[in-house]
Amino acid sequence: xxxxxxxxxxxxxxxxxxxxxxxxxxxxxxxxxxxxxxxxxxxxxxxxxxxxxxxxxxxxxxxxxxxxxxxxxxxxxxxxxxxxxxxxxxxxxxxxxxxxxxxxxxxxxxxxxxxxxxxxxxxxxxxxxxxxxxxxxxxxxxxxxxxxxxxxxxxxxxxxxxxxxxxxxxxxxxxxxxxxxxxxxxxxxxxxxxxxxxxxxxxxxxxxxxxxxxxxxxxxxxxxxxxxxxxxxxxxxxxxxxxxxxxxxxxxxxxxxxxxxxxxxxxxxxxxxxxxxxxxxxxxxxxxxx
Length: 290
Fold this sequence. Notes:
The chain is mainly alpha-helical. It has helices spanning 15-20, 22-46, 50-54, 68-75, 79-110, 116-128, 131-144, 150-174, 179-186, 191-202, 204-220, 223-228, 237-251, 254-284. The mean pLDDT is 85.
């Protein structure tokens, strides 16, 4: 049998539509060029000396590539400690948020009960409250209950991300077909087991997407860490970079500062590079409709 080749017909270009989108293309292109130039400059500065940075000879590398800036930032400036703390906070918080929000979103979207709409409205209200408005009550309560250390920051990151995560997952669970639950009930599977084994895997794209957003949010969080990170041993990368910037007044090692910026920026950059398709599919897609 001869294989038939499928010929794809190219659609004619709608120049009127393309011209109407031209201002948007220009704005996006300018933003990309500016951002790329900015990042390349930081990368070049992280491989240069302070003298080269201030003389404007970042990309000349007259004295070579100074990879020791990264070693110094990682060891002498405690970036390794900041990095490990942020990684711990982000991973544990993301797991805790999913363990709380996924069952909550499932129940709120699949079952009707007294207070259902009130809880959903409460989640929306909780999302709209700025962190600066609740910082003093949280500080007073944690001081009264003697909650401190890494466990405090992890609890704060979990509770602050639960409203957004639960609201995000509501629509995905709501669009799942009820035939899955009916078939599981006929087979004698209890509701809790049905959720963990059948329903939760069906919203995996949404869980991956919201977990990435939560990870980035916790990784880049600054305000709560500034208030509640009471020691250098529990400081995350955001506050750690502030400490490094302040130390530049005495050390003058600006190459090490930019090396620390690159190290801190790298995890979020890699997430966007390797998981961009999952992020887009999780944002634009829905659950399996029935």
